Amino acid sequence: MKTRVNTKNGDNLSILGFGCMRFPTKGGSIDEPRAAAMIHEAIAKGVNYFDTAYIYHGGKSEAFLGGALSGGYREKVKIATKLPPFMVNKLENAKKIFATQLSRLQTDYIDYYLLHMLTDKPMFDRLFSLGVLKWLEELKEEGIIKNLGFSFHGSKSDFERIVKAYPWDFCQIQYNYMDENNQATKSGLQLAAGLGIPVIIMEPLRGGKLVNNLPEEVIKAFQNYDADRSPAEWALRWVWNHPEVNVLLSGMSNEEQVADNIRIAGYAEADSLNKEELDIFEKVKQVMREKTKIPCTACGYCMPCPAGVDIPGCFSCYNDKYLLKDKSMRWKYMQTLGAMSVKPANASRCKSCGKCETHCPQKIAIRSQLKTVSKEMEGVLYKPVVGIVRKLMKIK
Ligand code: SF4
Ligand code: SF4
């Protein structure tokens, strides 16, 4: 496992961090034996950074991670977790959440603590005026928090404002070859690094979109150069090619992903991609840009929807229809989002309340996009066909 030193505090961090928002699930809950085995295997192979949050897996990720790290693992790793600003209206809320996090994680200190998903400077200002930053500084002085940072999903200009507004110990941004000029952007990455702020990268595979169901042209472009290198490896190595990156978080969901990511992290170096390889990314980006209709990363922050819409699921089917030119996608949409479900979750169930849009880090106009999805994926025959299928399958 390659490591990179956090120049601010000397921590030797594995370049691969374990993102704890996409553990394998069974019956809707974390498949604990499998996920724990994946965590232990990652630690055995040198992964020493685990990133969770108060809200991941519907609030179950932290407690699960705490349990998985008990029995001597905790001391071998750094735990990162996050305070959800949208649940903090007064300082007392934050204190209560933090106490719950320590208890869930079975620890008395947090190595890397983040304000979760800052999207603009006023959000930071609000937390500051509530006294949250001052209180977190006190926790740092007491050694209960070791490093204080923020995760970010917003515009380049807001990133610049936030990163300069406070003496952060680290920050976390979304970055992958499709997002070089999106959100914090490459210049934001360079700005943070220039200020001496270590950078953690999330969404290196854009929620799996840079791996699964890629257009044929993209797969060919990669394979023509190296038939053995997977799309995941191309995407991860693109991120690690940046010397400004400290840790890349991968939300690993199965044993193969753990093994593959660890393998790649065993040799990925900064500035190791040559010009020909970098040119291939430019071609690939062009193809992907032309074909991805809605830039949803499947992060799930917009969920749950009170009307039961599976927002990322709807967008995924719609995007795949264009990315893959897959004519069966309407059938898949019907199967997964309506006909076969006890609780249908298709786009036309949206009541336009707008609750989801305030949480979307990609700033997607979810209501209007769901209307488009509903128009294209459902059409006039959707309801009668779903009704028949449900009747045949005796789904109430
Ligand atoms: S706007 Fe629609 S999709 Fe979003 S939360 Fe409201 S009902 Fe759900
Ligand atoms: S719509 Fe936005 S918040 Fe919801 S899953 Fe997609 S990117 Fe995440």
Extract low-pLDDT stretches: none
Rounded mean pLDDT score: 92
Helical content class:
40-55%
CATH level 3 topology of the largest domain:
TIM Barrel
Written as H for each helix and E for each strand, in order along the chain, the element string is EEEEEHEHHEHEHHEHEHEHHEHHHHHH
Into which percentage range does the β-strand content fall?
A: 5-15%
What is the CA–CA distance across the termini?
Answer: 51 Å
**What number of domains?**
2
What is the total tally of β strands?
Answer: 12
> Numbering strands along the chain, what is their spatial order in the largest sheet?
3-6-7-8-9-10-11-12
Structure overview:
The structure is a single chain. The chain is built from 16 helices and 12 strands. The strands form 3 sheets. Strands 3-6-7-8-9-10-11-12 form an 8-stranded parallel barrel, surrounded by 6 helices. By secondary structure, it is of the alpha/beta class. The longest helix is centred in the last third of the chain and has 17 residues, at 275-291. It is globular, with a radius of gyration of 21 Å. A hairpin with a 2-residue loop joins strand 4 (25-26) and strand 5 (29-30). The mean pLDDT is 92. It folds into 2 domains: 3-286, Alpha-Beta Barrel (TIM Barrel); 311-392, no CATH class. Helix 1 runs parallel beside helix 11, helix 3 (61-68) packs parallel to helix 4 (91-105) and helix 9 (216-225) packs antiparallel against helix 12 (275-291). The termini are far apart.
Descriptors for this entry?
alpha/beta; TIM Barrel; 8-stranded parallel barrel; two-stranded antiparallel sheet; 12 strands; 14% strand
